[in-house]
Amino acid sequence: MEPKIQKPSPAEEAIRAVQSLYPENIVSDSILQDRESYYDAIRGEIHAALRAIPNTALKYDRPPEGRNPAKDPADWSENPSSYDLLFLALLDEEFQTEGEAFAWEIFGGDASEEDTETVPSIGWTGCAVGISTLAPFASIVFAELETVGDRLASLPDIWPHTFDLDGSDRDLDGWYENAFHGKGFQALCALRETIAEILRQHGIQVLSEPGLQEAVPGLNPDPEVRARQKEMHDSLDQYARENNIIPAKRLIKKTATLKEALFLMAQGQSTDL
Fold it and tell me: Can you give the pTM of this predicted structure?
């Protein structure tokens, strides 16, 4: 009887794909220059399928080239990245918050007792979707988007922007499960699985966050990105100590992770790690 061949995990397949992307064995944004991608041929189909998911709305999309000519002002600039970023919001009232903010906070100016004009704010909860253009892999995380007036006040991403008080990465599944009990959290999970199935139908595998943190043997990280990472961690540790909290212990990998290799942004645009 022949031994059964074990199928590699999605993370193992991603590692194999990534190892062929960087011939000099270092993550570099030079990979973004004049590169044809498998994703070009299927991007429109994927967007159409995501827009067709019932009871959701595509509230945000940032193309890999960085600027959306159909939506962004002519003078708007954003550095290119290696991933297509979308945010799908659930439309049930449970996943929306309404409020208001002072106009001077949004449009500028000095605060004063007489300056009490406010503008409405709306928050949406759903899933941020990052689809790598370098290899057929994706990340899906629960996220939020807030608009104030006609402006975006907070943007979703697959990179973490919220942390626990000790500076550790927030367990998003646990946090959203506490925020949306029972059917609410089930609806978020169902949306994530629906998105994942659409991506699988187009040959794209979704990697879990633990899978994305797998180190790629022999691949060195971008030194500038790691320097920003250290700066951010130092700031989080200082905040924890100032509030009498023991800072989180972190294991910083010497080699690049799958997330660093698949989801990067051109230098000059900071990415929170």
Answer: 0.83
